[in-house]
Each structure stands twice: as structure tokens, then as C-alpha cells.
Amino acid sequence: VILPEKKLIDRIRRQAGRRANAGIFRGIGDDTAILEITKGHQLLVTTDLCIEDVHFRRAWHPARCVGHRCLVRGLSDIAAMGGEPVACFLSLGLPSQLPQKWVDDFIHGLLNLARSFHVTLAGGDISSSEKVVADIVVTGQAPSGRAVLRSGARAGDRIYVTGELGGSAAQLQKLLAGEKITPKPSDRHFYPQPRLEAGQWLRQHGATAMIDLSDGLSTDLDHICAESRVSAVIDAAKLPIARNANLALALHGGEEYELLFTAPKKAKLPPKIADIRVTEIGEVQKRSQSATIQLRDQHGHLRPLKPQGWQHFHKSLLTPA
Amino acid sequence: VILPEKKLIDRIRRQAGRRANAGIFRGIGDDTAILEITKGHQLLVTTDLCIEDVHFRRAWHPARCVGHRCLVRGLSDIAAMGGEPVACFLSLGLPSQLPQKWVDDFIHGLLNLARSFHVTLAGGDISSSEKVVADIVVTGQAPSGRAVLRSGARAGDRIYVTGELGGSAAQLQKLLAGEKITPKPSDRHFYPQPRLEAGQWLRQHGATAMIDLSDGLSTDLDHICAESRVSAVIDAAKLPIARNANLALALHGGEEYELLFTAPKKAKLPPKIADIRVTEIGEVQKRSQSATIQLRDQHGHLRPLKPQGWQHFHKSLLTPA
User: How close, in Å, is residue A296 to chain B by CA atoms?
Assistant: First the structure.
């Protein structure tokens, strides 16, 4: 069972360490954290919930992997703005009968990833709860007025993604089918990596709009189209589908944490950015009333593509039972 | 039942409105919010969980009151630093069978309080969950190096509290005993007020350490003593006990959201700050090995006072069944 709250906080505080960013003036141990934002920069803030049996299952995901995945969600949002992460905050609800080892492994997975990107765990909250609930808050910064928004896509821009698509969803499908998987560090489903370096490069090199692929390509591209008031065409044949996946999973599968972005037609993008493959997959068009997103098949035929990625309170392709 | 996620977010986005602070560059609708921190100021960040049947019960607390109480926790932390709140973020887990009216009332209660302190709801996350889970994040700012920490209390300082003590816990006791209470706007338990103006005044007028009373006087004073490496003596006779409360509730009852602070002996504090009564209740002493906090009774006798306020994963005076 779990340590009493005060002891648990002291333990996490020790684990978080003093390896603070220059920007952390005061971390765990006061009513609020105190952070310094670099001159000429704006503050970025994102929050993401991870709830047991919604975002993960204890039977499928080792605690270390849950902690890792939890922080990735926030770091990936910072990456999608082209930002630099600074500090994270963890609000954690835990069943009192949970083994302390589970909590230690969870924190370990989270802090391991945090350290690799020089992010400090600077605060949070702890409570008892019936199921594990973790809300991760990540703060970051970007040069003033330079963060890459969802709203900057213009007709004629080309659409790109980093990495491969559908691999995470393919593993989720196997888990849903009852298959046992022992997570490998290279598994996108279990240990996804936030594309922070690529995101910063893209901010510096003129990406017009950007989002991270957390809900699925069809849903996340719909967010860009809605905020930019544009439509889009995707070429099925161009999608970088992961070896274990298929077209449907590449289009609608979530939790990839790759970057989906747009850039002017004349922009010359290298085939790899920060060592990650970049693929052109379609183009932005003027807003159309008939269909926000269309999919072009190998014969050149267009059909409307509805957002069918993850949506809470709604059935979706990958809704767990 | 609840709206699909996208519609729910659109609805909350409309409710949150554009009434943005000058500091909000981008609110709901992108991967992260973008905020501007005033020049010469540092960023304050706090997160607080509110979990159904731990922090509130749907049978006791109307949804509006749950939303209000949820945000108060974060605003009160900003108050305890002497800071000015800027934006809030809400991560919300909701059972899909919850009536949409409950969610509307919750958001209404939260936004009502937010507006009265010019705080913008600038982002968050939404998920399904078995019970209602709300994590509130509040960002704020304070002039660089001037936020009032828990660690600044010095031997000889006097200890003060704002307002009255034990009133919130007394109402909780009645609820636990099965009494029905129809919340009145003036009820500290149902509609506590964050002491933001008083906190800022105290920062400007030399408070040496400060914390908000969320867990209970004995526990929160213990936090100040631990961070400041001092001991403390409290005078039972001086405590401003609420009319409906008693000494035990004033010492250990949580959720008061009053400010507990220290100031040099020679500081002249007015009897009221920002219209809230201020009471001297004890003094800071050099760190003692025998007892961190002592209580002086009406006969002048000292006895050790253990922290007995709220602690998760631990039985306490007021643990709900």
C-alpha cells in the first residue's frame, strides 16, 4: 500500500531532485512553483489527463510505461507549438491499496523522460481516488509571437507528417484482441517520443500550422482545417504507413505523437528533420462546404474523409470495450 | 448524458468567452495556451485535484458549488504567494452518463468565480472517467523575487491568520452526520473566497512567510515550520474560532482558504486587511527538537500540537466514511 501523503511527497521531491532548469526559481515545497520565462519569450501551458481504463490499463501497461506516456502527451503539445519545455507538474490520484512499487515505477518512467529533455518536475498535487488518475501539466516557452498555431494553414500549403502512422494503433488493436505484449523501448505505443527537436526546427523554418497526432490523423487534421478555415486533400498512396499497420489505422489511429504540419508549397524540406523522416501527404485547399477533408485513392478518385479518431463520450474505431 | 467531446469543448470555449486578460495571447483551441508574463515578474503555477467522493460529494455539493470550490483551491495558492492570478486550466474527467446540466452548472460556478478575479479559462483537457475528476491549474505572477514563500519565517516573528477558523469543517461535520444543508452564498464550506487582495497587501507590507489554510492550521503551520526550519507556539485563547466551530475544528479543520502568515514582531498590522479581519495567534521560535508546534492553553500551559489536518492515504479527524 501507499505511503502517507506527506512521506510520498517528500519521496517524489527527492526523486525529482534539484537538477533544476535555470528557469525554476522554486519547485516542489511551496503553495505554487515559481518559474522564470526567458526574456522575449511567451509562456506555453498544456494539461493532459491520463485515466486508468480510459488511457491505459494496468494489465497492459507497466507502471513505468504509464508514467512515460503520461508526460509524452504534454511534451508533444509543446513540440507542436515549436516550443521548448521548461517544467512539468503532476496531479496524481491513487487508490490507497496500490503497491508503493507501482507508484515508484510510474514516477521513474515519468522522470526518466523528463530528464532526457531537461524538464523539471516542479510541483503537483496528490489525492486518494478509486482508480489511478494522472493529470500532467507542462509549461514551456517560445519566442514571442513565433509559436506555430493550428490556425496558420493557407490554401496551396503542402501537408506533412513526421515518422510513420498507425503503428501505435496497431499495437492497441492487438491488446484489445487479448494478445499479450511485452513492451520494448522502441514500441511507439508503449514508449512514444515527443518530437521536440523537429518541432523547434519547423518553427524556425516556416511551418505555417502544426498539431501533434494524439487523436488520429483524420481528427487532428480536422482541427487544423477548422482553426485555419481551410479544407485539405490527403493522398492515400503517400501515407507513411507503419509496417504493422494499415490505411485505416494510419488515418484514424491515435497516440502516434508524430507532428502533422503545413508549409508553403515553395518550402524545401529535407527528407529528415532531427533524424526523423518527413513525408508530404497532401495539400491545403480553400475552404469547401462539401467536405473538409478528402482522401485521394490510388486511381485519383476523391472521397470525403470524416474525422474518426478518438473522441471521448463517443464510440470510435478504437473504443476499448 | 454528456455532449460528444468536440461539442463539449466548443461549448466551454464559448462560455469561457474572449474576455481575456491582456496576458492571454492564445486560449482554448490550440495544442497549448500562449500567455505573456508581465516584465519584471515571475510565473506562479499551482495544480489541485478535486475528486468525487474525496473532495466533494454530488449528494452534498451542488455542481455550481463544486466548480467554485475547485477553482478556489488554485486561486488560494496564488493568494498565499502574494501573487496575481492570470489564467486557469481545467482537466475534467466525466462519467458519460452525467447530465449535461451538471457539467453546465459546474462550469458556470467555476467561470463565475474566475470572472470576479479577471482570470481567463485558457485551456484544459476532457476525458471520460468513472467518477468526476477535476484538476485545476492556475497560473499567476508576482514581481521577481518578491513572492512570499513558506520558508521565510524567523524566530521572533508573530503568527497571524485572516478571517475565522473551523467554520468550514463544522459544516463538513454536519454533512458527515447526515444533516441536509442548503448552501448559502456566505457559507465558507460551500463558497469559500480566495484571499487574493489580502495576500498581495501582505506581500507589499513585509509578511515573511505565508500559506493558505487548506489542510488545517496544525498541518499548514507545520509546513511553514518545516520549510523555515523553525518552531511555533499558538495561543488557544487568541484563535478566531467561527461561531459554529470549536477549538479542535479551528486547529485541524481544513478547507478554510484563509491565509496563515508570519510578520516581524515590530510590524504594525491593521486589524483588517482588504476588509478581512486579521488576528495574531502566536509566535515563531527557534527550532526545537521536542515539538515543532506547541499550543498554549488559557492557563499558560504548553502542550505539543501534532499536525492532524487532512492527509490523503491516512485517517484524519474529518476523514469521510
Answer: 26
